[in-house]
Amino acid sequence: MPRFPLWLVLEMSFLNLSQLPIGRSGEIVEVSGAPAGVARLQELGFQTGRTIEMVRPGETCIVKLDRCKMCVRTCGACVLVRPL
Amino acid sequence: MDFTPRSGTEPLAAPSIALVGNPNTGKSTLFNSLTGQRQLVANYPGVTVAKKSGQFSAHGRTWNVVDLPGAYSLTPRSPDEKITSDVLLGRVPGESIDIVVCVVDASNLRRNLFLASQVLELRRPTIVALSKLDLLVAQGQRLDLQKLQEQLGVPVVPIHVARKQGVTELQSELERLRGRIASGQWQPAEHGLISGKTSGQFAEGPDSDHSETAARYAWIDQHAMLACSTRPNDANKLGEEGRHGEGSQQAGRSRPQVSWSDRLDGWLTHGISGSLTFLVVMFALFLAVFLIAGPAGDWVDTGLGWANLAVSSWIPAGMFRDLLLEGVIGGVGNFLVFLPQIFILFLFIGLLESTGYMARAAYLMDRVFSPLGMSGKSFLPLLSSFACAIPGIMATRIIERPRDRLLTIMVAPLMSCSARIPVYSIMISVVVTANIFVQAAFMLAMYLIGVVTALVIVYVWKKLIWREASPEFVMELPEYQFPHVSEVVRRTCERSGEFVVRAGTIIMALTILVWAANYFPRNDQEVAVQLAEISRLETEIAGQSSETAESSQETLSNRLNELQVEVAALRQEQSFLGQGGKWIEPVVRPLGWDWRIGCAALASFPAREVIVTTLGILYQVGDPEENRTELELALRQATWPGTGKPVFTIPVALSIMVFFALCSQCASTLAVIYQETRSVWWPLLSFVYMTVLAYIGAFLAYQIGTWVGL
């Protein structure tokens, strides 16, 4: 059985936020990208460890975070989630 | 920076308070119920962000309140947010705040406490006003106010403004706090917030140190959020959604009960049903604007007619009367007629905003805008521009990125505003005599030309000139709620008032200038024959006794009317404006226009609606507003000198309409662009690109129209 490096195994189990299927929740693993965009996302609560639920997927998606619905298009920033 | 109360004979005799909070927390509603009618909307010095201030009396003193624009953080991202942090940090001269009231939305406590924690760190006297507690309870949660107050170290007052609850309590709490400050007993609370962030360090642009944000949220979770708990009987149903450090497998799979807001979103944000609903809503909006505003505009017209009559009967004939009639009343009237349309559009948009639908519309439109390089935040400014570009341009302040804001400002005037309607309707009714559907199709085509051109410009500018990716787009979708009608009406009146003041002054000044260009030089010798005839007829009519046959009296007054119109036309031709029209005739010939159309277009550069009046004067119709059908008839009968061919053919009308759809013919808009961008280059660029585009568009419309054989 071929052995994959650990980072690749981890990478494969994470999804970009836009890939999270409808109705599924995920834990935010990383928010990265352009500083200004990342800062705003973090201020709004997109932080490592938070649970996020996909309400309507797409490039511009609607998510639920802390019971608050938000519409997000993360151009320039990347929100990585671990599906729960 | 530690807070020191202002010195004076009696400290804090008239204290100033500032309301601060996230957008959609009910901050403005609280402001309105505190201040009632005693409000003032102005601008902050040097910037165009609206400053809402007011007063109220409580406990025997007058309180000054200022409502700061909604913000998510004291590190600002938009002009609106910047003013909020600048005022709180004491960077706005003449703006001193004694007490900060931080409005916190309980149903979204964690995120709202982010800003609140930043405010607390300023170590100023602060009160937290907790709104939407009922929504928190509906979510199956419970909040221990006492505990929250202990954790935050400041008074917490629950409010429900729509039900008029909590306002008196808030006032009492303010008075108590004021007393403590005045007697020197007030001390800033020590909450052990992330240390080291003094007030001077906020607002220095995007913060690349994300650890600070994380530390702030950690503080919120470990302290303030302790006051919030899930009701025991709801705990099983709801699970511990998203609580920090409890993101267990179970938490992710738990399905909270579906609220009606979620169900509505299932329909309204859906690709097909949502888009269809959006189209229906937009259609209803424009229908309302045209159906309701039309008759209302007629009332304004009637009112102006009375004003005209009063001036004519009280003020002796002469230049001053002409100035009042044609310059002042005509000028102000020209745009007051559009006020009902603008009011209704604002009202409709206000109602949609109040229900929470506007955020969904912006989400739907983001899918159209993002491939072009813009975000859904540009939707509302562009929609407002269909009434008038001025409020549309002012609404761009919510857009965070300066370049996106600029681009939205640049294309907003391409949306067909209400001032273009008279031009379209007169041209269409002159050349299209077929059924009403063909006329409507022409009208729709004119609106589409503006929209499509705007989209193409955005694409070219963003992708080819700036070569930028689409901006990131994050927007809260608030819970749906029934609109707060009185609140919306009040805000609509405010916005319309702002529009009247801004546009009215500029439009009036410019109309007076155009009037002067149209009035001078005044050489009575050229029209001496006609003038002599007029005075002879006037004495004859005055001398006639009542017994004289009515028919002869009518013939005389008809002849008098004709002569007066002839004099007006001759004078027009001699005026600076008329000379200008003749001078530019070679330029407008390729568009299929004669010198008179060129002259009317030239006169319409300060305000496009002037074209109808100017055409009326040029084609020798008495008062074109009253004699709309007469003007149509005159335009249909107008011929080219020599050939006898009609001037107004379909290609000519098309070229005029396309020109007006695309041209920058509004001095007020240019002035507002200057105010919003603080640069002469942007209004100049807007003027040049739109005018060049309009010329090319009109040229193509005429040439292609003629070639096709329309």
Short recap of the structure:
Chain A has helices spanning 6-13, 35-43, and strands at 15-16, 25-33, 51-56, 61-65, 68-73, 77-83.
Features:
A: alpha+beta, 6-stranded antiparallel beta sheet, B: 710 residues, alpha/beta, 7-stranded mixed beta sheet, two-stranded antiparallel sheet, 30 helices, 59% helix
Report how far apart the termini of chain A are.
27 Å
- Greatest interface and its participating residue counts: A-B, 44 and 50 residues
Tally of alpha and pi helices of chain B? 30
- Inertia-based shape of chain A: globular
Number of strands of chain A: 6
Largest sheet of chain A: 6 strands, antiparallel
> Which class best fits the helix and strand makeup of chain B?
alpha/beta
What is the element layout, followed by pairings?
The complex is a heterodimer of chains A (84) and B (710).
Chain A: H1 6-13, E1 15-16, E2 25-33, H2 35-43, E3 51-56, E4 61-65, E5 68-73, E6 77-83
Antiparallel strand pairs in A: 1-6, 2-3, 2-6, 3-4, 4-5
Chain B: E1 16-21, H1 27-35, E2 39-43, E3 50-58, E4 61-67, H2 79-88, E5 99-105, H3 109-121, E6 126-131, H4 133-138, E7 141-143, H5 145-152, E8 156-158, H6 167-182, H7 210-222, E9 228-230, H8 232-238, H9 249-253, H10 260-268, H11 273-314, H12 319-336, H13 339-355, H14 357-369, H15 379-384, H16 389-394, H17 402-411, H18 421-431, H19 436-465, E10 473-477, H20 485-519, H21 528-543, H22 550-574, H23 576-583, H24 585-588, H25 595-603, H26 610-618, H27 628-637, H28 650-662, H29 667-677, H30 681-708
Parallel strand pairs in B: 1-4, 1-5, 5-6, 6-8
Antiparallel strand pairs in B: 2-3, 3-4, 7-9
Helix pairs in contact in B: 3-7, 11-12, 11-13, 12-20, 13-20, 18-19, 18-27, 18-28, 19-28, 20-29, 21-22, 22-23, 23-25, 25-26, 28-30, 29-30
